[in-house]
Automatic annotation (TrEMBL):
Record organism: Mycena metata
Biased composition (Pro residues): 679-693
UniProt entry keywords in alphabetical sequence: Membrane, Transmembrane, Transmembrane helix
Keyword Kinase belongs to the record: no
InterPro entries: C-N_Hydrolase_sf
Bias (Polar residues): 695-706
Organism placement in taxonomy: Eukaryota, Fungi, Dikarya, Basidiomycota, Agaricomycotina
Biased composition (Low complexity): 582-593, 715-725
Region (Disordered), start-end ranges: 571-593, 623-654, 674-773
Protein name (record): CN hydrolase domain-containing protein
Highest taxon listed in the record's lineage: Eukaryota
Amino acid sequence: MELRTLIQRSPNAFHISMAATSALFGLTMSPTFVPVVFTLASLLLYAPILFNRPRPFAYTALLWISLSLGSSIGRLVPAVNALSTAGPSISVLLVMSSLTSAVAIFAVFADVYICNFTGGTQAVLFPAIWALLWTTTSHLLPLGRLTSWTPVSGAQSYSWLSPWTGPAGIDWITAAWAVVISQSIGSWYMGYSDDSSLETGRRKEFSRTAGTLVLALVLTALTIPTFILSGFPYPLSPPETVTPLVVGCALPPSSKIDGPAPGLEDYINESKTLSAARIVLWPEAAVSFRSEKDRAEAFLRIQASIYQRGTYWAVSFEEEIADESDDSGDTSMKRTGLALISNSSVDHMHYYKRFLVPIAESFSLSPGSSPPPIFPLPQSRPQSIPRSRWGKPDTRLLNVTTSICLDFAMPSLFRDLDSRPALILAPARTWDPAIGNRMWEEVKQRANEIGSVALWCDGGKGGVGQGSWYRTIGVPYPFDSTPTFYARFGNPFILAAASWLFVFGPIACRFAISRYKKSNLHAMVQSRSEDSTVHSFIARDFRSFNGRKRFDVSPSLGSFQFITSDDLPIRLDDDSPKKTRSSSSSRPATPLRSSLPLRVGIGSLLHRFKSFARTFLRKRSRDGALTDPHSTRIESTGAPRASESNTRLAPTPLRPVEYRLVDTYELNASAASSVFEPEPAPPTPASSSPPSPSWLSRNVQETNPVLNFEGKRGPTLSSPLLSPLDNSANDLRQLEPVTPPSPPPSHSKENQSADKRESSSFRKADNDSTAKPLFPSSKYNLFISAPPNFEPELPEDLWTLINTINTQGGHLDNMDFTGKQHAEVVDFGGEVDYSGYEWFQEPPPKQPPPPQSVGTPYVPLPGVIEQNEAFEFALSAAPNVLYARYKQYGQLGVLAWCSEFGELIDNLKDLGFKGNMFVATRTQALRTCEELLKLMKHSLELKMQIIVMYLSSQVARLRRFLDGEKTWDDYPEPQFPLDYTKKYPPAAGEY
């Protein structure tokens, strides 16, 4: 069973199941672009069917429930853990999914309604409706963009639009692709009309197809800037144009495992290990304070712990404040905030979370009211960069702003900023990996919209990343602080643009089309299409493709070529011979269609060019054979001409033919039998009456024709095309076909198959047929026009050359190729005399030595690059990990870490023995050895000297492998209680 038949039998079940399935895979916690597009496409296909039903409420409710359940299943696991009990979490999830599904169904139904009653274009209307609704909904719902159908992954090709259009641009792209897919599938599902006389329907179909094609080309063209604009982070060099900035995230180990939450001391100690970072960010609500006084004391303590000048700690906290709604002051509320602290001040920047998670935070926390601030953070010149390359001034200012967790789900978060920030601090604390990943995607989207970079630090169980880390990023210098287009105008401009497209888009399209029809360009195209001197299939194809009529006649005349009596060389009332029955081997004149199907493919155009060339050469090849009394010729008007007395026969006049309508249910099985009955008799003059256009009327007696010709007829367009190489000067014969005659040149694959069926029905059945006679119900007249003219005007020299080629090509028929071989043996008559020739007198020339091969440059494999990067990261983090183990487990932690470090050394040696170690990896390893020894001397209090010796031996082993010729003298000396170099007398009781 075909898919189309399955859809037609049960459209409701098919479309509802497709929408629910695509929603199940696409509407997860992080919606994906392709499944969301197919979900919308299925809704657009089903909406016209559902909207035009008498009572669509039942199926609409079923579709709404299916979409709500499909979108809820993908978000069920993260929602269950949102609250302490699963019941309220699932209820809130179902309510939010139902609301968003209702918004989607409303958008689709609004598009169908407006298109039906206003004649708007869906390609312009639906994307505007979709973007307008979701932009409005994101401002009304408490979760912002978290509940929308906006794809957060899979649409990276359109990410360059975010600084210009924000999330509404991605919504518009999604809806536009859904329109393209739905209209393409809809054209396949509905099929194409075979009635080419329906001019209005063909124009609408062409307009819809052209609009879909233009929209697809526009969407494809919008991906081109992705290949031009670089989406990679800025490099770290050169320092003249880039400011390197080291940022980090402090996550104590206990914050990632079940156990007591880390306190203030844990975060302070963890931040000290990130001394290389200029900005250290703490996760959301890292520490809690009971009052403002407690918070002030903690900030002073944090300030005293920052030793290095120019280092800033972004501390996220939760504090209790008095409830403003309670006049007694007995109750208190909490609020989540962030403060930027350095060793010089505790009041660089303060911000409080403005958007709270419904139910989970909305009852216990108080939202903030101030927009995100901007702090100009001074960045001094690093010691590793010389002053000559850094330039002046020595300090560069970088704008820094912040927001907290759910704030980033709101589309207009940074609309109040006067300048573009270089860095956004984004602390969070999520409860599920899916939630953490979705919030990270929202943070990236907000940063891309304002042209900035975000520092994400998630301290929840579902946080992205584990453990503390720091990284160096590059900020362009001088930094362009001009806000982006979207940051400056925001969603009001997007809403206005979408509203304009929604209201005036279809009107503007129709106005542009009407202006084009009145322009000179359209008049020029129209005048060319109506040129009466050109009568070719190609010209008529383009006229049909443009959907325009050739003559200004009444639509009731159909799509026939209009011919008057003045155009005919003979009178219509001329007496003609009686009709003679046409045999199966004769060639009746095939009726020509003056209107062609709408769609003209490239293949059909090439086919018509080839047919024109063959007909053109065949006609000219016969000019040289006019002296032959049996030769024939085709006139420029397309009518046959007799050549017996060099007189022209009159072309076929306009001839009416009567056909009767029949009832298909009264036909017997013989109607489907073959109608080709070859006869051995020679070809007789064909009837001027065209055959029946269908086998349904083959048993109906036809009326007498108006005109018939006696004697031989010239070849018609249905005759087989003759190659000019098969002609001879005095021998040109009319070929007798063995197979049924071929149809006239068709204009598409569908028309070819249709013409074959029509040509097979052009032969009438015998009188002794067993078919049941049919009775007429009504009569219709069919007008058949003459074939068009194919003769072009070419120079006489070119005609002479073509005739010469044709004459010479005809002699190939008299050549005998039988008994020949592919390669004949040629005898030149005698052997060559080599007497007196001296052989091998001169030595062969010495061949030059082969050039020395130049070795190809070493190009490391991607796996080797990843290995070296992993080793560099592990070696750079080794001192921090060692210090963390010492703080957790004391000296035994250092001993255990030495074993892990030994395994790292073994793997590093294997990398070096294979020849895959980079110079940067070797340099980092030597630097790590120095840092480990400094840490062991100054920060680790190791009383067990065996641990000191073990760690020193591991460092020495690594140094011997990296640089065995150098002598190192920075190892710590063991501090034993007794001097082992001296000899002591034995103690009492010892021998």
